[in-house]
Amino acid sequence: MKNLLYGLCLFNSVIHERKKYGALGWNIPYEFNDSDLEVAMLQLSLLIGKGDEVPWKALHYLTGDITYGGRVTDDWDRRCLHALLSRFYSSSALQDDYMYSNDKLYSRLPAAFTFADVKRHVDNELPSVDSPSLFGMTEDAEMTYMENQAKSIMQTILSVQPNFSTHLTTGTAVKTSDEVVLEACDDMLRNVPEVVEDEEAIMNPPSSSSGAQAPKRVFSFQSLMRADPATKVLHKRSKELELPGFLNQRIYQSALVTFLRQEVDRMNRLLETIFKSLTLLHSAVKGEIIMSEELEDVYQSILEQRIPSLWKKVAYESMKPLGAWVSDLCQRVDYLARWCHQVSMYVEIEYKRFMFSTHPNKDGKGKEAVGPAAMDNSYMYKYEHPRSYWLPAFFFPQGFLTAVLQNHARQHTISIDSLHFEFDVQPNPSIDQESQLQDTKFQLNVTDLGFHYLAAPAWSAMSQYLAAPAWSAMSQYLAAPAWSAMSQYLAAPAWSAMSQYLAAPAWSAMSQYLAAPAWSAMSQYLAAPAWSAMSQYLAAPAWSAMSQYLAAPAWSAMSQYLAGPANSGDGILVFGLYLDGARWDTEQGCLQDSRPSHRFSRLPELVLRPSKGDSESSTLMTASVDNCYGCPLYRTSARAGTLSSTGHSTNYVTAIQLPSTQPSDFWVSRGVALLCQLDEV
User: Fold this and answer.
1) CB neighbourhood size of 48 (10 A)
2) Predicted confidence (pLDDT) at residue 572 exceeds the cutoff of 60
3) CB contact at 8 A, 257 and 264
4) Looking at the Swiss-Prot or TrEMBL record, what is one Pfam family this protein matches (predicted)?
5) What is the dihedral of CA 427, 431, 434, 439, to 10 degrees?
6) Where are the strands (E) in 142-210, listed by range?
7) CB atoms near residue 397 (< 10 Å)
8) What is the rounded CA–CA span in Å between residue 628 and residue 13?
9) Using CB atoms within 10 A of its CB, is residue 349 exposed (0-12), middle (13-18) or buried (19+)?
10) Alpha helices (H) in 439-540, listed in sequence order
């Protein structure tokens, strides 16, 4: 009873002090008070006094779900509360050698002790500064706490400083605030795209520097999305282009294409807000228009390097400073633009191929049809979607996951409510080496990674391979007269007769066969000059070189490359996620403790496979699965979010099962989570 009471008091201290670690401690800081401890002590006294056995389930429920848990509103915080409570309320806590922390600084008290002994133990034996191990944390968490304190102090000092001068020192030059803001406005207006897809430039491409006119496009993504919803007919310049039925299914019945259209609309709305506010601010600073309250906020935000409130209303969740946020915005726009380009080019090539097969000479509109032979880059658009998806690029990542499940449900004619995701980490050898995963400043080329069959190294290797002398020799060899003669020889009637003869029952009668006239004919046939030429041909060095060439690793890589995306089946690849408080061990294929001074690390590419099963298996309670940790995924490091109009949290995305050699409570106490983006990168 006494040791359980001591453990309860220690537990009460732990849940209070975890708040200093910010989001690592609790997603939401809760106001636990003394009355919670008093009620928990009363419950412990009542339950222990009823019998010799300790009712652990009742203690956990009353303390973890009612007394303290009644204040907890976040499900993941409730899971953390139970993980902490299990260290103090367990049968192991009654053993003499039990330790409350891994560093063995906090131990169980002796069997017989008094209140004076407890006071002496706390004053003399416990450290003056709490060890992070008691909270389930590491030294990196303690460092984060100190950094947050330093930032808070600096922000307080800056907030009380009077604004004596409007001049700012930048390098060796002294600029006024207005000059700094105007320079920042010009830079953003110059570098940030105005829209995701410039339809006019796509449909009417400008001439190159040499004066050559680029071929005009038939489709853009926006024109595809403006198709009549009933007939799926494109209306463009008073002409109608009806897509083949299979394209209607691949495009207009795809939940991912619908999701892409919604993301493009959200991004265009954000870009419009940015350009409109920056243009007005530029005029207001010059005195051409009145500076409104909203423009004043944009002005101050640029000086303080934070995202203006006007932009936040229509923007995605982010805690980056303004400079990093703008760079991230440009990457997101580029990724969405490439996806739009991929969809429209896929439709265009398939449409031209369809028209060429049905109208070999004309496309049905009086124009010359473009056949597959003229489409040199058709291999680049074999698929309408990316190879791998940059999940952090989306405004609404939950909608993306739902779209993947919806496509799977439609394809297999099953209920979407019966589906959940299975997860598999598959490191990409080119970007997921141990050193690259630890370096959070390592810049991923998100466009090439998402659309690697457009500019991947494997394609470059294949191009060199096709240009190699051995390939040229093989091509000439296949075109040689001897090969043609051999082909005719194999198709000759005599060879056919011999083939039938070898399969005939007479072959088993060897004596009759050897004396048969047909054998004599075959012998003469094998001795013919053409057979001799073929034998020499197969033994020639060029044939040997070709055989080695086809067996080379580069040919194998090319074969895989031409096969398209690596995520075969119904699974999808996602990338760009970060681990907070842990790292991924590429050798063992599981979670491991983060290295010193490396709180964050990147997670390798992740495969998400829709699977049919109990819908509850996709909830956060799957965190208790053996050898796996149910890791929550958040958009930002703030973790806490609010319930949006869509019914989803503005921050929490989903739970991802990650293999682990440690029990789940180990990572829960550490506050390990996945993030879509970091604050400073």
Assistant:
1) 16
2) yes
3) no
4) AAA_lid_11
5) -130
6) 167-170, 173-176
7) 21
8) 29
9) buried
10) 446-450, 452-455, 457-466, 469-478, 481-490, 493-503, 510-515, 517-526, 529-539
How many other β-carbons are positioned within 10 Å of the β-carbon of residue 615?
13
For the stretch 498-534, what's the b/e string if a residue is b when 16 or more beta carbons lie within 10 angstroms of its beta carbon? beebeeeeeeeeeeeeeebeebeebeebeeeebeebb
Q: How far is CA 182 from CA 175, 292, 309, 426, 651, in A?
A: 11, 16, 19, 46, 33
pLDDT band at 670 (very low <50, low <70, confident <90, very high): very high
Rg (Cα) of the chain, in Å, rounded?
A: 35
> How far is 112 from 493, CA to CA, in rounded Å?
105
Query: In this structure, which long-range contacts are made by residues 560-563, counting pairs with CB atoms below 8 Å and at least 24 apart in sequence?
Result: 560/458, 561/453, 561/456, 561/458, 561/459, 561/462, 562/379
Residue 448 tokens read as 């090439």
Q: How far apart are CA 25 and CA 157, in angstroms?
A: 26
Residue type, 16: H
pLDDT tens per residue across span 394-414: 999 999 999 999 999 988 889
- Give the H or E element holding residue 241: strand 239-242
What are the strands, taking DSSP E only, across 349-402? 388-390
d(CA 400, CA 635): 14
Closest by CA to 140, choosing from 27, 30, 22, 29, is 22
pLDDT in tens, 524-539: 555 555 555 555 655 5
Distance, C-alpha 16 to centroid of its chain: 35
Would you say how long the chain is, in residues? 681
Cβ–Cβ contacts within 10 Å for residue 595, how many? 12
What pTM did the predictor assign? 0.78
What is the predicted pLDDT for the residue at 471? 46
Report whether 7 contacts 59 (CB < 8 A).
no
pLDDT at residue 560, as a whole number: 42
Whole-angstrom distance, CA of residue 133 vs CA of residue 106: 9
pLDDT value, residue 187: 94
Q: Cα(366)–Cα(377) distance, rounded to whole angstroms?
A: 25
**Three-state secondary structure readout of 286-353:** CCCCCCCHHHHHHHHHHHHCCCCHHHHCCCCCCCCCHHHHHHHHHHHHHHHHHHHHHHHHHHHHHHHH
Place of tokens 């390098």: 171
* Burial tier of 295 (Cβ tally within 10 Å: 0-12, 13-18, 19+): buried
Amino acid symbol at 320: K
In which band, very low, low, confident or very high, does the pLDDT at 666 lie, cut at 50, 70 and 90?
very high
Mean pLDDT is lowest, of 272-276, 363-367, 410-414, for 363-367
Distance of CA 373 to the CA centre of its chain: 36
Residues of each domain in the chain carrying CATH 1.10.8.720:
2-147
